[in-house]
Amino acid sequence: MTAALLRSLHVPGRPLVLPNVWDAGTARLVVEAGFPVVATSSLAVAESLGHADHQAADVDEMFAAARRITRAVDVPVTVDAEAGYGLPPAELAARLLDVGAVGCNLEDTDHVGGGLVPADRQADYLAAVRAAAGQDLVINARVDVFLSAKDQDSVLEEGISRARAYLAAGADCVYPILLGTGMKAFVDEVGAPVNAMKRQDLSIQDLTATGVARISLAAVLWRRLQATLLEELRVVRDPQAE
């Protein structure tokens, strides 16, 4: 499966919907349900391996998990590579391609120093990943400025500026994670494929209407299944509570 196929599925107004997975079993279920692409969730993969999110997991374990997923399905797989795990761009690109991924998420959060990576430095990193991977990798550049903003409108211009810089550096798609009511304005201003995260207050239909080209469920399925399993375990432990 090629990056070209994955890239072709990013259609504004007819978004690619991605129920993010964490292992070979969940990847197979996504394909069985009729989805044309498999995407991983770094949080779900890390926690399924016994680690926390935000690059706390061993990088070799994360790539091994990605390889198991790509081997399990016959559709394109895009991997949430967080902020690149501190790897040089060429090494990151090589390792993603080696495990069979044809796409990746790369975020601009600084997991070492805190806050966000300066936009120009992140753009340089993305450009170097693009140069190393050529067109064999669909790069989804995450814009994290909305994650902790108390007022998303106040950082909308910064988010748009970062998105434009990342697209100019070679990203195929930009991902303003957690952006809510400002999504339509963001999409209109950026003028390129945009990835939205499914939120409780915004349905897939709502997000589709904004013109996004891709919708991620992120860790939603992982969290729901964990909550369901915990409830089942409580019932097994105490049948009277059922």
From TrEMBL:
The question of whether Lyase is a record keyword is answered with yes
Q: Which Pfam families does this one have?
A: PEP_mutase
Question: Which molecular function terms from Gene Ontology are attached?
Answer: lyase activity
**Per the database entry, which stretches of residues form a coiled coil?**
none
Q: Which UniProt keywords apply?
A: Lyase
Under the heading InterPro entries, the entry gives:
ICL/PEPM (IPR039556), Pyrv/PenolPyrv_kinase-like_dom (IPR015813), Pyrv_kinase-like_dom_sf (IPR040442)
Return the protein name: 2-methylisocitrate lyase-like PEP mutase family enzyme
Native organism is Actinophytocola oryzae
